[in-house]
Amino acid sequence: MLQDAAARPAESVGSDTANSSRSVPAAITLTERPVNRVTYAGLRLLTGALAKGWQLTVEGMDNLPTTGPAILAANHVSFIDSPLLMFELRRRVWLMGKAEYLETRLTKALFPALGMIPVDRGGRKAALAAMRSGLGVLEAGECLGIFPEGTRSRDGMLYRGHTGLAWLAFKSGAPIVPVGITGTGEVQPPGSRLPKLRGDCGLKIGEPLEFHRYRPKDRRAYRNLTDDVMFEIAQLSGQRYVDRYAETTSSNGIVPTPRPPD
Amino acid sequence: MRNELIATHSPTAAALIEPGGAVSYGELADHVARTAGGLLAAGVTVGDRVVVLGVNDTAFVTGLLAAQAVGAVACPITSRDPQPVINERIEALSPRALIAGPSTAERVAEAVAADVIDRSAVGTAAGSPSSELPPLPDVEPAPPLDIDGSQAGAILHTSGIVGAPRAAVLTLDNLVLAQQRIIRVGPGLAAGDVTLAALPLTHVLGLNMCLLPSLRVGATVVLQAPWEAEAALELIARHQVTHVVGVPPMWDALASAGGHGAEDAMRSVTFARTGASTLNPAIADAVHERFGLELAQGYGLTETAGTVALELAARRHPGSVGRPLDDVELRLVEDGLEVEQGDRGEVWIRTGSVFHGYLDDAAATAEVLISDGWCRTGDVAIQDDDGTLYLVGRSKDLINVSGFNVFPAEVEAVIETHGDVESAVVIGEPDEVAGERVVAYVTTVGGGDVDRQSIVDHCRQRLSRYKIPTSIHVVDRLPLTATGKRVRSQLR
């Protein structure tokens, strides 16, 4: 079970969310049941213990606002990127993740409990529901985590971001906090079932980006804003940028990219 | 099928107005028929090329129409071009005849001396005699001929989708389909309208989106050469012009020209159009504020015989060129596939006005005219949910900074909003670390020096980091085409 998170473009604000083959909840509730809190606390402890072995360093924590809505935009190279963002920062992060997790028994119970917002990567319309849920998180003043590439990078390069990120930023007015994740690809590369216990991982949190200069009425603003965020992520992660979308491995029939040699 | 080039329903109505006076539709038809007769007598037959050399005047219009009337290919060349350019173009066209405008004797003499045209093939149009140039044979007027619309009708020089400037061959059908598009759109174009033709008639916008559609419907065309804003306002007022087509710098000049009379002068205008290069939204705002006019912004190419998309009110979608017009299919393509909605892609066009090909250049033609009638434009754009098109830049101008795309047009537009900068051209130069870096060449208001750091600061507030120029050069003059397009290759 591998974790991917996605933020597909969802620009058409007015259109409806029909035609999803999966049961994607149209909205999430931010009130947690006790069992979720227990699950959350347990996994937080586990991640904390593992992070010691991974020699996790977090730089720029002060850049993450402690209150108010914020969008955390990170590169994505490993399954463990998600728990690191969820548990190792100074505030609770609601992550957007692929809807495929709702299809297997373990993750179906676990991931929504942790505050994951499922994103159907099968199409634009289906993704809209997830984008609205993400907007709901921001409107509640919470911090939303996104992997703008929409999937993990199979070769370690940084790929083009989906413009759903810009939609969320324009709609919510929330600042975007770029995050560069390093070293997790060695701890648990895509395709490996369990993480190694030793590693050298880092989270670099950049300064919040304000986007008042953009005019959302101009369609080009969405792509520009998204590229700008990817540039900042590249500066933090040190990855080389490739201006095309990363390919997703999923049940949607999309051909997976070959794994890099070990 | 008979192709009526100009309206015939009202012979006494004014067809052309120039400083020397007005020419009625009847007179124009007579000039054209006599000039066509002269061409036939000179041995011009269907498919031959006829160069028309001159500026925006009656002789030029007569020559173009006469060439088409005998089934020849009209090849307009402006006598304002430098002699080497004129010679080169004439040589490449190898025309059967050259119709020379009244003030082109010197140009013709040099072309003859350079041996690119035979003196015996040169003549003036009927109704436009010249003391220094021979007239075409004065014989019987040519009878109306049936011309096949799939025949080449004009060859226009373009900055070119790929590589160097090229000569685009347009069929009569190409030309007419594009004209009909602009006759139908928005407030429309009809007899009774008065069009200002200040754009060079050698350019697709001036020729096929301004002059020819006006003559087709029986409107009056006011010819202006050379363009000058104050004089244009006077012409507009005197002749109650209803349609004004100009490139963005012309609108910029109009919006800031004249004294208190300018607002009154423009009162007759019902359709204000622009095209050929990117419109700074501030110009649309200024035109609206000054004249109460909504400026329409179009998108088109020489290779599509003119406008294929039009935003009737540029202020409504700032930065947009509107939606594709009704008979135009448009796709945005990257790596051979249509892009996701909202993503950048190269504009592909399919419509009846897509050109026949480049003159004597099958390789370049094959690069642009691909399978199933699609034309690759080389322009990169983004489309809104409702099809509204936003141009991003030219794919060949793309600057790659550490893998990120920088389109010069965006950077230029920002630099030009700096108060001390008149215009800017941005190019990429090789960089060891980033692959390429962004470099700007600017001309300043008043021509003096400028605080480069203030331009950088100005950009910093409006552009992301990797788009900010790493060096700025102040120059006296920037390489621009006649319609204001930037010739970036000259700086590379």
Describe it for me?
The complex is a heterodimer of chains A (262) and B (492). Chain A has 262 residues and is α/β, with parallel strands linked by helices. Chain A has a single domain, classed as 3-Layer(aba) Sandwich (Glycerol-3-phosphate (1)-acyltransferase). Chain A is built from 7 helices and 9 strands; from the N terminus they run H-E-E-H-E-H-E-H-E-E-H-E-H-E-H-E. Chain A has a 7-stranded mixed beta sheet with strand order 1-8-7-2-5-3-4, sandwiched between helices. A two-stranded parallel ribbon of chain A has the order 6-9. In chain A, helix 1 packs across helix 2 and helix 4 packs parallel to helix 5. The longest helix of chain A is centred in the first third of the chain and has 20 residues. The radius of gyration of chain A is 17 Å and the shape is globular. With 492 residues, chain B is an alpha/beta fold. Chain B folds into 3 domains: 134 residues, Rossmann fold (3-Layer(aba) Sandwich); 214 residues, Rossmann fold (3-Layer(aba) Sandwich), CATH 3.40.50; 93 residues, GMP Synthetase, Chain A, domain 3 (2-Layer Sandwich), CATH 3.30.300. Chain B is built from 13 helices and 26 strands. Chain B has a 9-stranded mixed beta sheet with strand order 2-1-10-9-11-12-13-14-15, sandwiched between helices. In chain B, strand 25, helix 13 and strand 26 form a beta-alpha-beta unit. The longest helix of chain B has 17 residues. Chain B is globular and about 70 Å long. Chains A and B meet through helix 7 and strand 9 of A and loops of B.
Index terms:
heterodimer, A: 262 residues, alpha/beta, Glycerol-3-phosphate (1)-acyltransferase, seven-stranded mixed beta sheet, two-stranded parallel sheet, globular, disordered N terminus, disordered C terminus, B: 492 residues, Rossmann fold, GMP Synthetase, Chain A, domain 3, nine-stranded mixed beta sheet, five-stranded antiparallel beta sheet, 13 helices, 26 strands
